[in-house]
Amino acid sequence: MNSRFYRCCKISGSVLVLILLPMLMLAQPELKNIELRYADDSKGDTHISVDQESPNESPSRSASFSKSGYVNYSGISLLPGENSTAVRFQVINAYRFSEKFSAGLGVGYIPYNDPLGLLPIFLEARYQFLESNISPFAFFRTGYGISVLADKDLQVDNHVGGLVLNPGIGVVFHTNGAIGWSFTAGLNIDHAAFDQQRWAGQTVRTKLVYQRLQVGVALSF
Predict the structure, then answer these.
(1) Contact 194, 206 (CB under 8 A)
(2) What is the pTM of this model?
(3) What range does the domain containing 20 cover?
(4) What is the C-alpha separation between 63 and 86, in angstroms, rounded?
């Protein structure tokens, strides 16, 4: 009788462990590689042991996420205006100082064609909020836009560029290795001016401020 009762208790204990083990795994998501082992000793008793291996890395970080080093952002953006939509092409060569912060130098081209186009040369600072393959980020760009006469039909005596400002936010998706795709939205502000000669030798200066929404996509590598 005692032997039968002991055996029933032993089986019940084994079943209880099997029931509680999945609950333990759900309650402790950081546990990995849990192995359940059964062993019978010389007395016929059953022993249950759980082996746990410590994880090599945090689940929120992938091996494809680059911590530091050189990175290139090449992209295209749309700048919708009242009468037309300009397209901006740009390349940024940056250095990632940590998992979250990078800074670099960029150059681009915006053919506004009314009558100028701009060749912006700017600095960018970027902060990524999460150390993971998918993360939101914020950026700020500032520099100087070199003016280019795009409308050859308009008589322009002189033209100059001006200050470039472009704050914004985005989301980055890192894929294989250091390759990633970024989707951004922000406010793009460009300054420029041009001179025209009018009647009686009078020169008139027209100042331009392009203040437009910016929506873009970029490839990083």
Answers:
(1) yes
(2) 0.70
(3) 2-53
(4) 38
Q: What DSSP line would sit under 107-118, residue for residue?
A: EEEB---SSEEE
Q: What is the CA radius of gyration of the chain?
A: 31
CA distance 56 to 181: 27
Rounded Cα distance between 110 and 154, Å, is 18
- Kindly give the confidence (pLDDT) of every residue in the chain, 221 residues in length, as a single tens digit, with 9 standing for 90 and above: 555 444 544 544 454 344 434 434 433 444 344 444 545 555 555 555 545 544 444 444 444 556 779 999 999 999 999 889 999 999 999 999 998 999 999 999 999 988 999 999 999 999 999 988 999 999 999 999 999 998 888 889 899 999 999 999 999 998 876 789 999 999 999 999 999 988 777 889 999 999 999 999 999 99
Task: Indicate whether 60 belongs to any domain.
Answer: no
Same domain for 14 and 48, yes or no, is: yes
108 and 73 assigned to the same domain? yes
In the block, tokens 């019940």 appear at 12
Same domain, 17 and 114: no
Q: Are residues 31 and 106 in the same domain?
A: no
Neighbours of 168 (CB within 10 A): 20
Same domain for 73 and 43: no
Q: What are the E-state strand segments in 21-115?
A: 32-40, 46-53, 69-80, 85-96, 101-109
Give CA–CA dist 141/209, Å, rounded.
17
Number of domains in the chain: 2
In a domain, 59, yes or no: no
